[in-house]
Amino acid sequence: MFTGIVEELGTVAAVEDQGDAIRLGISATTVLEGTGLGDSIAVNGCCLTVTSIDGDTWTADVMQETLDKTSLHGVRPGDRVNLERAVTADKRLGGHIVQGHVDGVGEVVSRTPSEHWEVVEVAMPAALSRYLVDKGSITVDGVSLTVVEAGDERFTVSLIPETLARTTLGTRQPGDRVNLEVDVIAKYVERLLPFQNPTSQDHA
What we know:
Elements: E1 8-17, E2 21-27, E3 40-43, E4 46-49, E5 52-54, E6 57-63, H1 64-69, E7 80-85, E8 104-113, E9 118-123, E10 137-140, E11 143-150, E12 154-159, H2 161-166, E13 177-182, H3 184-192
Antiparallel strand pairs: 1-2, 1-7, 2-6, 3-4, 3-7, 5-6, 8-9, 8-13, 9-12, 10-11, 10-13, 11-12
């Protein structure tokens, strides 16, 4: 589990094509502290497993399912990526509950700068819109954000200078694809609703 608070901007060092998968090599420092083989690191919001560590570079295997449903299939050496280690029980939950399981890929529509923040509009798959509410949470490329306005196929978020400087969202431009993960609590509520009025036969 993650919190959507990016710890570090890493750099893609290598992308090795393996046919139905790729092996990513990522240069980083902070997220490698205390990290071992088999540990989880979120890369642009995708939970990946550390398969090797060599100095300041670690690798992860990305299977076809992940490539098909996230923006990782388009990464290239030199790209910057948002990184976060899996949260431990003694850490503060600074963002919200993030699984690292991408629900869909969105697209940056527009950026509107202000004096102290920037409003970003993102297009999303229509099927995800029911999970968004104004002032609710959404994860964009691994960053926990508050929804300003939730529409049927688009939503807006406001980015403070800290987020602009410390994550890839500071450089995303209209047309860029971003990984989206909706609030898992909303998905659980939706799943439970059909069972809220059990019949007497269910208790027999």
